[in-house]
Amino acid sequence: MASGTSMFSLSGKVALITGGASGIGLAIAEAMARCGAKVMVGSRTIEKVEGAVKQIRRAVEAEQPQRIADDTEPVAAGISIDVASDSSVEHAVEKVIDNFGRLDILVNSAGMMLKKPTFELAAEEFNNLYNTHVTGSLRCCQAAGHLMREQHAGVIINLASISSFVDLVEVASYASAKSAILGLTRSLANEWAKYGIRTNAIAPGFVPTDINRKMIEGTDRGRRILEHTPMARFGKAEEIAGAAVYLASSAASFVNGHTLVIDGGYLASGIGDSFAPWAQPDSE
Predict the structure, then answer these.
(1) Given phi > 0 = left and psi -120 to 50 = alpha, else beta, which region is 229?
(2) Residue 246 bears catalytic tag
(3) pLDDT confidence of residue 284
(4) Which of 145, 184, 237, 263 is 20 to 30 A from residue 66's alpha carbon, by CA?
(5) Annotated catalytic residue: which of 130, 174, 195, 266?
(6) How many H helices and E strands in the chain?
(7) Distances (CA, A) of 225 to 56, 205, 274
(8) Mapping DSSP to helix (H, G, I), strand (E, B) and coil, where does residue 72 land?
(9) Euclidean distance between CA atoms 247 and 258, whole angstroms
(10) Which of the four pLDDT bands, split at 50, 70 and 90, describes residue 215?
């Protein structure tokens, strides 16, 4: 087994990150690139993809200029992908092979949010969100899994959520989909391990991104979240990225079927109050 920091090296690996043009997906893509991987950034909006690729290349070049100079392939490339479309997913996987010759890591980070009272939630809205998060992840897992099975090696990382475990009110479609991600992760971990494929999930706590920022920053909901978070703050996208690097690396070679929660202690808080005004020590 590798030792020291080499345990976390992704040198020689190729990763496809859906939803990789912004938020947590982009942070994961950049972190994996900085740890040695070649990354294919996938998202529906090609302009965002192109911007993300430039950002990743700049970050790696600033930190590892010699690597950029020596590489015959770009450290990052991008593609427009709609995880709700079989043909789009298949094309994206083919593009990874065309660009980098192999696929070792799949990160399913594509997603969307819908906050709406459940009495008003249409079945079509529910199904659309489920199709993106769950069926979309399945499509990507199947397409990448065929390649990983042939090479008898691969890592799949699905993005679950804190709402896989607790309710957040008026996000029934999102919570249902993210709960299903846990089942999908366990099923693939159990079924595909014999093919050399490890499947795990990451459940981020409250991390402000484009899809949820308006719901939690400067709102009463956000205040209540902080009052029940022992670390008394929201998370950062880069704090989730380190977990993805770990799960993709040889350091996690015996980790399979696990969901890693990164939430600042939110699930552990019980009654909470660690950050509530009434729980603060009296000032002198």
Answers:
(1) beta
(2) no
(3) 47
(4) 237
(5) 174
(6) 10, 7
(7) 31, 10, 11
(8) coil
(9) 10
(10) confident
Adjacent-strand bridge partners of 155? 105, 198
Q: How is residue 194 written in tokens?
A: 């014999």
Q: Find all residues with CB under 8 Å of 99, minimum gap 6, and list them.
A: 38, 40, 73, 74, 77
Across-strand partners of 197? 154
Domain ranges of the chain: 7-265
d(CA 104, CA 233): 34
Selection from 20, 5, 24, 23 nearest residue 76 by Cα: 20
- One-letter identity of residue 198: R
**Which residues pair with residue 203 across a beta bridge?**
261
Please check whether residue 49 is in contact with residue 21, taking contact to mean a CB–CB distance below 8 angstroms: yes
CATH architecture designation of domain 7-265: 3-Layer(aba) Sandwich (3.40)
In contact, 141 and 108? CB cutoff 8 Å: yes
How far is residue 61 from each of residues 30, 137, 176, measured CA to CA in Å? 12, 31, 41
CA 137/CA 110 separation, integer angstroms: 8
Measured CA to CA in angstroms, residue 57 lies from 105, 145, 260 at distances of 19, 27, 28
pLDDT in tens, 44-81: 999 999 999 999 999 999 999 988 888 878 999 999 99
Q: Could you tell me which residue, 269 or 15, shows the higher pLDDT?
A: 15
Contacts of residue 85, defined as CB under 8 A and 6 or more positions apart, other chains included, come to none
CA-based nearest residue to 110, from 88, 38, 35: 88
Tell me the CA end-to-end span of the chain in Å, nearest whole number: 54
Residue 62 has which token pair?
């600033």
d(CA 223, CA 210): 19
With beta carbons less than 8 A apart as the criterion, state whether 10 and 36 touch: yes
pLDDT number for residue 273? 59
Helix (H, G, I), strand (E, B) or coil at 201: strand
